[in-house]
Amino acid sequence: MFKFSTLLGLVALVPAFTLAVGEWGQCGGINYTGSTTCDAGLVCNVINDYYHQCLRGGTVAPPTSSSSSSGPSVPPTSTSTSSGPQPTPDAGNPYIGYDIYLSPYYADEVAAAVSAISNPALAAKAASVANIPTFIWFDVVAKVPTLGTYLADALSIQQSTGRNQLVQIVVYDLPDRDCAALASNGEFSIANNGLANYKNYVDQIVAQIARTCCPLVTSAITDLACLSEYPQIRVVAVVEPDSLANMVTNLNVAKCAGAQAAYTEGVTYALQKLNTVGVYSYVDAGHAGWLGWPANLGPAAQLFANLYTNAGSPSFFRGLATNVANYNLLNAPSPDPVTSPNANYDEIHYINALAPELSSRGFPAHFIVDQGRSAVQGIRGAWGDWCNVDNAGFGTRPTTSTGSSLIDAIVWVKPGGESDGTSDTSAVRYDGHCGLASAKKPAPEAGTWFQAYFEMLVANAVPAL
Ligand code: BGC
Q1: Distances (CA, A) of 284 to 108, 212, 233, 290, 310
Q2: What are phi and psi of 456, to 5 degrees?
Q3: Which of 25, 156, 159, 180 is deepest in the core (most CB within 10 A)?
Q4: Which residues, 6+ apart, have CB-to-CB distance to 211 below 8 Å?
Q5: What are phi and psi of 443, to 5 degrees?
Q6: Which helix (H) or strand (E) holds 170?
Q7: Nearest ligand 1 atom to alpha carbon 186
Q8: 386 is in an annotated binding site
Q9: pLDDT (mean) for 43-60
Q10: Cα(318) to centroid of ligand 1, in Å?
């Protein structure tokens, strides 16, 4: 920061020489009087009405002086998917060249957990988990306003470190959510205006990302910088864990059959809207023990392909997220006995089997894989055990060294230590899976902190923390 302000001071002192501004320096904005020329190879990007910045790879010139009279503008309440400028994605793996922003929400949870651990060695290991990037879940609409704070924070980190930042979010608030289970039933119901509420939730996420000064841009600018307030902060989304997998295999469950239209419309809406602000999206695709059974691969691929096509093949749509909040290894040295007789006994076998089915249907076969809690195998009574599986450990760290050209990144989606569901049999959201012998108990409500589970994940981590 010191370096930048020194440079800006120089710029303000000698504007007559039109001293060019270096990378990250200010080059425009309301009340700014310094140079608006960037060094060679840099472009002056509109960050907001008050701050334009020299960046590599940007393409948007700042608006002219007409912008200075209008003052701060407000986020749009809705965005269009069919008209107006559309951003253009970078080709290839969106994770390459970016540091993943660390979730402050999770860091707070971990800090509180650490303070409750008396064993110093375990506490030190536990503290290190806060430095491992984990997705930020927007599981209720009330959390959405924090997204803007995180993006602003990521931008400030990017400016002070010079390292590109990528914010990972989970979009998770469909009406009649978790239709085949009980533990994660959500806040919206289809019978009570749920789909409209969901669209409003998506709009609010988009508004957090959307640029506040869009009305000031009148020319045909088609760069992401005019659509996002944080054009150089990359956002990656996992969209609606479990939802479409339930549409493939669980339509025999009345709640899932009743949710089919709303899930399809809701997910389509989310993908289209996220696309307008340049969010790289991966739709959830269950895991090897769900859609990875040979009989499910074709129907799953067909459903995903239909969804993608009907959404208008959104340009930022990147592919599928697998094993979210589950326990499978990406590369198992040998099949866990519970996976028998499925030849696709781990995530790489599942992905390798699904990819050609997707590609032949015109669907982008790229993947991210959750390995956050996958360290220990042989701990489930059945492959379908998904709730707070006992003896699990933190798994392979997030990386783009995945060993497969199909896999963009190994990620941690489920924040380890947050419960999968309550073991209180009298709770409204009690699901029998959370009472199984394989489930650690007593467990609190889904999404809330489960201290004993977190400490177990820390102790059993592979590689060790
Ligand atoms: C819960 C959510 C939570 C998420 C991540 C889900 O099982 O239903 O409330 O945000 O897990 O922990």
Answers
A1: 26, 30, 23, 12, 17
A2: -65, -45
A3: 25
A4: 46, 48, 225, 226, 227, 228, 229, 231
A5: -115, 140
A6: strand 165-171
A7: 8
A8: yes
A9: 59
A10: 23
366 labelled as ligand-binding?
Answer: no
Tell me the pLDDT tens digit for each residue of 20-34. Answer: 887 667 677 766 778
* Residue 137 to residue 150: CA distance in whole angstroms: 12
Residue 439: per-residue pLDDT: 98
Nearest Cα neighbor of 207 from 74, 369, 306 is 74
Q: What's the rounded Cα separation, in Å, for the pair 279 and 168?
A: 10
* Shortest-distance atom of ligand 1 to CA 139: 10
**CB-based contact 266:311 (threshold 8 Å):** no
CA of 370 to the centre of ligand 1 (A): 14
Q: Which helix (H) or strand (E) holds 452?
A: helix 451-459
pTM score: 0.81
Residues 276 and 79 sit within 8 Å (Cβ to Cβ): yes
Query: Which DSSP category does 138 fall into?
Result: E
Residue with the larger pLDDT of the pair 354 and 5 = 354
Instruction: With H, G, I as helix, E, B as strand and everything else as coil, classify residue 237.
Output: strand
From the CA of 419, give the closest atom in ligand 1.
Answer: 12
Residue 447 Cα to ligand 1 midpoint, Å, equals 4
Look up residue 377 and give its amino acid.
Answer: Q
- Lowest mean pLDDT: which of 22-36, 62-76, 163-177, 403-417? 62-76
Q: Would strands 136-138 and 42-48 be described as parallel, antiparallel, or unpaired?
A: unpaired
The answer to whether the annotation marks 418 as part of a ligand binding site is yes
- The catalytic residues are 178, 242, 420
Residue 18 has pLDDT above 60, yes or no: no
User: What tokens appear for 372 in the block?
Assistant: 């956050």
